[in-house]
Design a protein that fits this description.
Layout lengths: L6 E3 L9 E4 L5 E3 H12 L7 E4 L4 H14 L2 E4 L5 H8 L6 E4 L10 E3 L15 E3 L3 E7 L7 E6 H15 L6 E4 L6 H14 L2 E3 L6 H10 L4 E5 L1 H9 L9 E4 L6 H11 L3 E7 L3 E7 L6 E3 L4 E5 L2 E6 L2 E6 L2 E6 L3 E7 L3 E4 L2 E4 H9 L6 E5 L12 E5 L5 H8 L11 E5 L12 H14 L14 E5 L2
Parallel strand pairs: 2-12, 4-5, 4-6, 5-9, 6-7, 11-12, 11-13, 13-14, 14-15, 26-27
Antiparallel strand pairs: 1-8, 2-3, 9-10, 15-16, 16-17, 17-22, 18-19, 19-20, 21-22, 23-24, 25-26, 27-28
Helix pairs in contact: 1-2, 4-5, 7-8
Length: 467
């Protein structure tokens, strides 16, 4: 297990003139320029103990984070940019101020607009060291209730986890990273901010959303290119009919990736697709090549421990044994097979299945662009209550059920199928349960085409009841 020193630098110190961020406005930002601008920004920050970072632009997010590191403030990364969420978090962190790159509707907290400091305000300085045991940021997950739950992180653990990921995937200073995920999410922070910080790889500042934007961002970055994304974005990319530049590696997380989708991506982009397993509590801790490996392989310092109520893990970047939320079938100390989330296991007629596996089978059906099984009452008597919400233009309920035939036991066939234009995924690609229940409740009440709330555009849902 590598020994972690008492302090660690913000950036590696041997490549000051290499690119760190690729931006539309500033072009190439080198390591030296980034540090000088972060230092200049730190001198303009308000004297606040907590900084709620709401920046969309990855470069400005990183500048604000690094300025907070230099200034000694703790950064708070909310699960979304909603004013109500920032207000709720600020109640527990007196003196917190917000930093953003655009105004936030309805925000009643102080907001500092982050702009790239003028070069004339910058002075050259040595690379700052940050104490390894210093708490530098708190990430928040929404949880099933929608209430933000805090997860504090120390600088040494962040660096250790990013270094472990870099060793696993072979990241180096020659790599360019394009990420479709927000930097406030643990996955996005690790792969698109901390990996560049510890390896010197360059990150594209923009967060492309649509397939053509993702293609253009990749084309603008020097090879070797790494795409950090989610299954939803990958599904959109394979359906777009675009010609893609060479992509050396695709990394996916935030939701299970169907093997059929991974195979299509590998064929279309002539690349390899790898998945990351982890959580906000642990950071990323395992990976697999989806097309080839049914089992996951732990990162090199991760060790599993059997507990009475599940599996916990330790690592040189996890300060104490931490329970994982999933049921794992351990393969010695080297890896595991993912059975499913403990809280999402279903038992019907003596047969068991996980919602995660059902969702994989659902999204593997040709014509299903996105979809999810929903058990409205949790695991209590789900028979007759399971529902499917799917994005599947052109498919009928009968065609969808036919697609499930032979893939899942008939006892798990959905009682209801609701077709929508989009699932209510958040910025991290996850599906808050309350949004799914709202769709089902609305469909039950109206049984006609209706619009989905929560800011979705072009929301349309139609319901076909089971026989």
């Amino acid at each position: 297990m590598p020994e972690i020193p008492d302090s660690l630098p913000i950036l590696p110190g041997f490549q000051s003139d290499r690119p760190l961020f690729l931006t539309d406005s500033a072009g190439v930002v080198t390591h030296r320029e980034f540090l000088n601008k972060a230092d200049a920004l730190a001198r303009t920050l308000p004297a606040a103990p907590y900084l709620i970072n709401l920046c969309n632009d990855r470069y400005l997010f990183a500048l604000a984070f690094a300025a907070g590191l230099i200034r000694g403030a703790v950064s708070l990364f909310p699960p979304n940019r909603l004013a109500a969420t920032a207000h709720e978090i600020a109640l527990d962190y007196p003196g917190a101020v917000c930093l953003g790159d655009t105004p936030v509707d309805g925000l009643e907290l102080p907001l500092g607009i982050v702009e790239e400091p003028d070069s004339r305000a910058c002075v050259a300085r040595a690379i700052p060291d940050i104490a390894a045991d210093r708490e530098v940021f708190i990430g928040f997950t929404s949880g099933s209730t929608g209430l933000p739950r805090p997860h504090p992180k120390r600088w040494g653990d962040l660096v250790g986890c990013a270094r472990a990921a870099a060793r696993r995937f072979g990241f180096g200073p020659e790599c360019s990273i394009v990420a479709t995920v927000v930097p406030q999410h643990m996955y996005g922070l690790e792969l698109s901010i901390m990996v560049p910080f510890v390896t010197g790889a360059a990150a594209v500042a923009a967060r492309p959303f649509f397939p053509a934007d993702i293609r253009d961002a990749l084309a603008s970055a020097p090879a070797p290119r790494i795409l950090v994304t989610t299954p939803v974005h990958l599904a959109s990319c394979v359906e777009a009919g675009l010609t893609w530049p060479a992509v050396d590696m695709v990394i996916s997380a935030t939701a299970p990736l169907p093997q059929t989708l991974a195979e299509r991506v590998e064929s279309l982009l002539t690349t390899q697709v790898l998945e990351i397993y982890g959580s906000t509590e642990t950071g990323s801790i395992a990976s697999r090549r989806t097309c080839r490996d049914p089992a996951w392989t732990w990162y090199d310092s991760v060790r599993p421990l059997r507990e009475a109520d599940g599996i916990s893990v330790t690592a040189d970047f996890i300060p104490a044994p931490t329970m994982v939320a999933d049921l794992l079938d351990l393969d010695g100390d080297t890896g595991f097979r993912l059975v499913g989330r403990a809280a999402e296991m279903l038992k019907v007629g003596g047969k068991r299945a996980s919602l995660a596996d059902l969702n994989l089978k659902l999204t593997a059906i040709e014509g299903v662009r996105d979809g999810v099984f929903v058990a409205p009452d949790g695991d209590r008597d789900p028979v007759g209550r399971l529902a499917v919400i799917a994005v599947a233009p052109g498919l009928t309920r009968q065609a969808l059920i036919a697609g499930l035939a032979g893939r899942i036991d008939p006892v798990f066939y959905p009682r209801r199928v609701v077709f929508v234009d989009r699932l209510p995924r958040n910025e991290a690609g996850k599906l808050p349960r309350e949004g799914l229940l709202r769709i089902l409740e609305t469909a039950t009440e109206t049984r006609i085409e209706t619009r989905i709330e929560a800011g979705l555009e072009n929301g349309r849902e139609g319901e076909q009841d089971a026989d």
